[in-house]
Amino acid sequence: MQTSNIEAVNFIQYLAFVLLLLFVSGTTSADYNPDANKQDILILDNTLHDRDRDRDVPIRIYYPKSAEGKLPVILFSHGLGGSREGYGYLGRYWASHEYVSVHITHRGSDTEAAMANGPDQFKQTAEAIASDPMNAVDRCKDVSFIIDQLTAANDDDKFPLKGRLDLSHIGMAGHSFGANTTMLISGEQTRSGRSFADDRIKCAIVISPPVAVPKAMFERAYAGVKIPLFVMTGTKDDSPIGESKAADRRVPFDHVKDIPAFLITFDGGDHMLFANNNRRAKQPTDDRYHQLILQGSVAFFDAYLRSDESAKKWFSGGDFKKSVGDAGVFEQK
User: Fold this and answer.
1) C-alpha dist (Å) from residue 188 to 61, 193, 209, 211, 241
2) Are strands 55-64 and 71-77 parallel, antiparallel or unpaired?
3) Nearest-CA neighbor of 246 among 173, 128, 324, 328?
4) 36-332 maps to which CATH number?
5) Terminal alpha carbon distance of the chain
6) What is the pTM of this model?
7) What is residue 280's predicted lDDT score, i.e. its pLDDT?
8) Are strands 201-207 and 100-104 parallel, antiparallel or unpaired?
9) Banded model confidence at residue 278, pLDDT cuts 50, 70, 90
10) What confidence score (pLDDT) does residue 38 get?
11) How far apart are CA 49 and CA 55, in angstroms?
12) Is the dihedral of CA 266, 267, 271, 274 positive or negative?
């Protein structure tokens, strides 16, 4: 009888412990909703001048109208032929979730430069821009310059967000040529072994990243990426410029090591899926895919910029994967 009582007590204690674990694990992710608590936003345009390079760097800032406290910052780098006006759906969504989203125009690889020889010569002009390594270098320097300027503006009485920028928590994202910029700022090395890593960047989302180094250099090129990384692509994400193929977009995910890394591959998603307002013909899956892009991106930033454990559990614990469903494949390592 004594043994039975002990066993019964132990079983009850064990059952209570299991129920507690289930309760905690169930409420942690259930409490997170990437679409909740959205704020009204404001937009600020400005052009900053880098005296050292005698170079103008236009920016567009999306920020929440009435959020309190310090706000994490996200920098966005456009694709070749884009500008600060592009990818507004991302900037608006991130700002509505109490981030300051700063979209940069990179002179020399922006809309004006790509259209310099007319629309009929766009592809040839864009390929020439992409093949000039100085454009990649200038883009990286633009990013570090903007962080410097935001740091100074955070103490400026004339800046609408004075004292509101949380510059110890900066994330970055970019599409296509902008994904290349993001990878370089995050620690990827160039063919020559050069690094443009800026350790003020704490996590990154790369959308349709090109592979800028030969296969033999993959291990060395990606060894310097030491921050959480989220790669987005699609099964039809061939580059309209250059030779990057859809299957190659996963290379950064496959070759980074010892960091939280994630990859979503949208079924049938092409290169312009992610540009949204630059898309020539809307596809039937666009609305669903854009919603997943928004939800996944804000959950990733919440997890790795804000250290929100409920967001991390939702994003990497299975809830996001369930949301993706048959829309694509979500991987992590």
Assistant:
1) 26, 9, 12, 11, 21
2) unpaired
3) 328
4) 3.40.50.1820
5) 50
6) 0.90
7) 66
8) unpaired
9) low
10) 87
11) 6
12) negative
